[in-house]
Design a protein that fits this description.
The complex is a heterodimer of chains A (478) and B (219). Chain A is mainly alpha-helical and 478 residues long. Chain A has a two-stranded antiparallel sheet. Chain A starts with a helix and ends with a helix. With 219 residues, chain B is mostly helical. Chain B starts with a helix and ends in a 16-residue tail after the last helix. Classes of the chains: A mainly alpha (478), B mainly alpha (219).
Amino acid sequence: MSFWVYAVIVLPFASAAILVVLPGYRLGALFNVAASFATLLAGLNLLRLEHAVGDYLIVDDVNIVFIVLNTLVGFTAAWFSASYIGHEIETGRITPLSVRFYHAMYQAMMGAMHLALLADNIGLLWVGLELATLITVVMVGLYRTPEAIEAAWKYFILGSVGISLAFFGTILAYLAGQAALGEGLPAMSWHLLHANADRLDVALLNLAFVFLLIGYGTKVGLAPLHAWLPDAHSEGPTPISAVLSGLLLNVALYALLRFKMLIAANPLAMRPGPILIVMGLVSLIFAALMLYQRRDIKRLFAYSSIEHMGLITFAFGMGGPLANFAGLLHMTMHSLTKSGIFFAVGHVAQAKGTQRIADIRGLSVTHPGLAIGLGLGVLAIAGLPPFGVFMSEFLILTTTFARAPWLALLPALGLLLAFGALLLRLQGMLFGAPNMPAHPVKASSFPLIAHLALVLIAGLYLPDALIAWFQRAAELLG
Amino acid sequence: MNQAYDISHFLAGMMLVASFALIYQERLLAVLRTFALQAVVLALAVAWQAWVQDRPHLFVTAVLALGLKGVVIPIALHRMIFRLGIHRDVEQVVGAGLTMLIGLGLTALSLLLILKATAAAPSLAREGLAIALAIVLLGLLMMITRRNAVTQIIGFMSMENGLILGSTGARGMPFVVEISVAFSVLIALFVFAVFVFRIRERFDSVDVSELDRVRGDRQ
C-alpha cells in the first residue's frame, strides 16, 4: 500500500490534532487551508496508482474519483471558510474559541470521509461515515441559536437511526460472507466479498442490502428519509453546508454503491436497480415540488441537493456503463456546482445580513459581481448549457430514453419543475429595487470562480484521459 | 452445547423484556434504571458469547458495556436529571397500549424476517440476531414516541445495545467493529452531553417539543 494512501487519511487527522492547540483564529484558518492543500496533493498522487489492495484499505478506479473530488472541494471550501469565518467573528455570531474547535473538526471530518472512501473493510467504511456524520452534527449546532440546536438535534436523531440500521446491514453482510469466506476478517473485506460474490448467502445478502439502503440512504438524503437535510444545511456555517452538499452526501452514496456492486455481482440476488430507480425518482420529483415553497435561500439549495442526489441515484439504478458514466459525471458536476453556489450564498448572506429570499432583492444593483456569480451558479445547476451539469443531465436522460422511453419522462419532468422554481427565485434575488442595507463582501471569491470555471470547462471540453478514467469506474460499477 | 443456547437465549430474552419495559415506563428515573439493567444483561450476554465462542477479546466489550452503559452513563444522567430538577417528572407516553402493540408487531416482524433469511446460518447466531433486531427496532420506536431529550438518548443507547448483541452473536466478527461500537458510544455521549446542556441553556427544559416552534422555514 502506497505511502500516499495513508497520507490522505492521516494528514487531516494529524492536522486536526495540531489545530486543537493552535492559538489565534487567523493562524488556524491558514493552517486549515495549508493542510487541505497538502491533502489535495496526496489525493492527486493516488492518480498515479493503478490499483492497490491492503489489509484494510483499497484503491481502485471507483474511489479515486471520489477521493480526488473530495480533496479538491475540501481545499476550496477551506479557502472559502478562511475568508468567511473572520466576518462571523466580527458580527459576534461565534467566539474565537469555537472557531479553533471548528477548524479542528473540519480536518477531522475530512479525515473521516477519506477513511470511509478508502476502506476495504466494510466495518471500517461504516466507522468512517459514522465519525464524519457525528462531527458534522456538532458543526451544524455551532452557532448555538435555537434553530441551530433544533437542526442539529434532528440531524443527530435521524442520522443515528440511519447509521444503526446501516450497522445492522453490515452485520448481515458479514454473515452472508461468512458462508463463503469463513469467520474473521476475510468476510468483512470488500474485495474478497466481491471476488466471491456468487458464493455469498443470497437471502442474507438481500436482507443486508435493504438495511444498508435505508441506513446509508438516510445520509444520502433520499426521500422519505431526507428530513434532516434542509435544516442541517440552513442552520450550520455556510462552508459546512458546501461540504455537506458537495461531499458528505457523495460519500454516503459511495457506501451504497459499494454494496450495490456486491449484490449486482451475485446472479441469484435481487436486482438493486428498480429500488434505486424508485427512490431516486421519488426524491427528485418531491424535492423539485418543494423548491417552490422555500423562503430561506440555503434551504432552497438544500432541496436542490436532494433533487440532484435523487437523479444520481436514478442513474446508478439504471446501471450499465453509460448510465453509470452519466451518474458519476453528474455527481462530480453537482458537487462542484453546488458547493460553488453555497460559497456564493455565503457571500450573499454576509452582504445582506439575512438568508430570507424575500429580503434579498436587487443584487445586480448593489453587488454586480456577486450577482453574476450566483446567477451563473444557479443557471448551471438548473441544467442550462454550456455548463457541465447540462451535459451530464442530457446523458442521463438520453441513455434512459434509449432503454425505457416512458421512464425518461419522469426525471425530465422533475428537472423541468426544478428549473422553473430556481429561475423564479433567482430572478427575484437578482433584480428589482434593493430593499436592505448592503454591506461590502469581504470573503474571497476565488473558490466560487474556480468551481464555476471547472464546471464550464467540463461542459465545453472533457479531456480524453478523464473520460477513459470515468469509463473504467463506470465499468466497475456494473 | 444445549446449555449455550439456553443461556444466550435467556439473556437476549431478558434484554428484549427490558426494551418493552422501556417503551411504556413513564417515570424518568425508572426508565434510567431499566436501561442500566438492560446494559448489565448485555454485558452478561457478551461475556457468555466470549466464553462459548472462545474469543477472550469479547470480554473487553462486555466490560465496556458493564462499566460504561451499566454504571457511568446512568450515574451521569442520574445526576443531570437531579440537577435539572426533573427527577419527579412523569412523561405521559401517548397511547401506551398502542405503542406496546406496535412493539409486539415489530418483534414478530424481526423474528419472521431474520429466521427466514438465515435458514442456512448456524442456529445460535440466528435467534440472537432476530432478538437483536427486535431490540434495535424497539429502541427506534422509543426514540419516535418520546418527547423528552433524556428518554430519546436512552432510546438511542438501547438501540446500540441491540447492535452490540447482534454483532457479538455473529461468530468471529472482527474486533475492529466492537472497538468502533464502544468508541461510537463514547462519542455519542459527548455529543449528547453537549446537546443536553445547550438545550438546557436555551429553554430551561429538556422537552424536545420546545424545539418544535422553530421548525420549518422561518416566516
